[in-house]
Amino acid sequence: MSREQAKVREVGPRDGLQMVQRILSTEQKLDWCRKAAEAGIAEIEITSFVPPQVVPQFADAVDVALGAVAMGSFTPAALVPNQKGAERAFDVGVPVVNYVLSASEAHNLANVRRTTEESLSAFGAIVAMRDRAEGVRTHLGGCIATAFGCTIQGDVPEAGVLEIARRYAEMGADEIIVADTVGYGDPKQVRRILSAVVAEVAPLPVACHFHDTRGLGLANVVAALEAGVRAFDASLGGLGGCPFAPGASGNIATEDTAFLLESLGFDTGVRFEPLLALRQQLEIWLPEECFGGAIARAGLPKTFEYQR
Amino acid sequence: MSREQAKVREVGPRDGLQMVQRILSTEQKLDWCRKAAEAGIAEIEITSFVPPQVVPQFADAVDVALGAVAMGSFTPAALVPNQKGAERAFDVGVPVVNYVLSASEAHNLANVRRTTEESLSAFGAIVAMRDRAEGVRTHLGGCIATAFGCTIQGDVPEAGVLEIARRYAEMGADEIIVADTVGYGDPKQVRRILSAVVAEVAPLPVACHFHDTRGLGLANVVAALEAGVRAFDASLGGLGGCPFAPGASGNIATEDTAFLLESLGFDTGVRFEPLLALRQQLEIWLPEECFGGAIARAGLPKTFEYQR
Fold first, then answer.
1. What is the pLDDT of residues B201-250, one digit of tens each?
2. Which residue of A has its CA nearest to B262?
3. Distance between CA B182 and CA B220 in Å, rounded?
4. Which domain CATH number covers A183?
């Protein structure tokens, strides 16, 4: 009997590294991708096309993208915050490009110095650019950051989140990604908002991007599953936050998310042994970083079995 | 509009301290209880009536119990693994006595050197002892440990868990407590087992006791809520396990559990400021222990408000 699939998408090389001071080499980043793919991860957000002076870690975005595309063992995705970034991503042929804006006006202004409306309008130009291009059609994700609340603005109106999802879909997005950028979401809110977004943009797929800032990351995954979501961003070892730093905001851990999904009966394709070996490699590469997650320290239950 | 109540029961002074090497003084334990009660915790598992040579930490069980009963600001509960323990708890007048056995035969044999059936039969004698006693009727909880799997035995048959719950209820238990002693449970299993137990013993209340060993503790709380459970054991700072020790198996953190429940709209009665201050006190008292939980490091969301 074949099981329903659910995807864990590794975003560590992008969101995990975003705040990390130590610059990983292009080769290390590609090694990370190669080994994650070997462990069964089918899609990896490999980099962000932002100016190097903004995030020095992504100065090698083009080289990482070229290397990842050449690898062929997984689907590389890149994050872009504007038209310029999208152009660079299209130029190197990244098959998935995720555009990001914040539902929180205050957060969007702080992040990209434009209103949410200005960012949203720019997506239209990106779609047009995509549609003009020759060759394989780029898959465009529309990401809604701070969809569950914002550290700057506080509450974020749910109607605004829905409206952004609707307009993304109208403009030609291939997927909507709803992100709890600051870890404010709770399972009730997640179920309510995701049910609404899924209904609004159907049959377009909807993915979620959760941070585990307040311990509710995996509970939020369960809530999103109930709303019909089947793809989740996560970073290996929960990289991107520190369990000891105040306000730290790491992604949900890839390995714990895969464990949860497999436990619930979903087929993630993930193999835990090589994934946890890769995590150990990462801990060596990034000795200053804090790695979280539970499966790496506790191991899988004795009763765990791949249901295939 | 009044909200539905959900209880977080502090079990740190019992389950949290069980494996801790440093012996807290009776006064410290009572101070913990006093401050937890001031922070809105209505029920606290204060100690375990086991032989001092087995768990030296609980050598002062009688004094802690007498002190807690005298306090009057919360409902003290005690854990007992056998008739002798129950007798001691009754003698000092602890109003809630939770009897524990393991659904896993192998775990029960390792823990109390009796079969699960022998332990279950002994509960009948404890109920009889309770019913013979004069004065206020003791509330008897029947706890089913390793209900979701066992590190020794592996799988634990769900029919056995249901059967134990049914017999506990028949014999005169006032509440059933279903415990994931080793952190093997996942939300799907929790919803399935708890729905069955709740239906089996209705209208008897059913509580849950989760450990966060593999990161699913709070997701399991949500699943149990959906099955109708409204009371959860937890320990402040997740005491009872270490995020860095292999196989460590701390309880879900009291403060994170309360945050989750409040976020979902339940009224826990908990005030976070004094609760987190108490946690800081505990960290000073127990410098060798690892404290976990997310709310203590990240703070409540800016958007959080007590809905009352």
1. 999 999 999 999 999 999 999 999 999 999 999 999 999 866 555 555 78
2. A186
3. 13
4. 3.20.20.70
